[in-house]
Write a structure and sequence with these properties.
It is built from one helix and two strands. The protein is of the alpha+beta class. It has a domain of about 30 residues. Strands 1-2 form a two-stranded antiparallel ribbon. A hairpin with a 5-residue loop joins β1 and β2. It is flat. It starts with about 30 loop residues before the first helix and ends in an 8-residue tail after the last strand. The relative contact order is 0.13.
């Protein structure tokens, strides 16, 4: 007989400390604003371009929601 597996809809959110969409399980964990600000400092706050000059990823503070 064939094994039947269930599919999970959507995607699993990571638990990395640098992920602003993670679920904070303990008090005192960094909130979304702090994580976004630290990621901006880490990336230098610059947008990323490909070889042709097209913007691949906007700067952290320019992301449109």
């Amino acid at each position: 007989m064939a094994r039947v597996t269930q599919r999970v809809e959507g995607f699993k959110k990571g638990q990395s400390s640098s992920n602003p969409d993670r679920i904070a399980k303990k008090p005192g964990m960094r909130d979304r604003a702090t994580i976004n600000r630290l990621n901006m400092y880490k990336s230098g706050g610059r947008k990323i371009r490909d070889r042709k000059g097209k913007v691949v990823k906007e700067a952290q503070y320019q992301v449109r929601n």
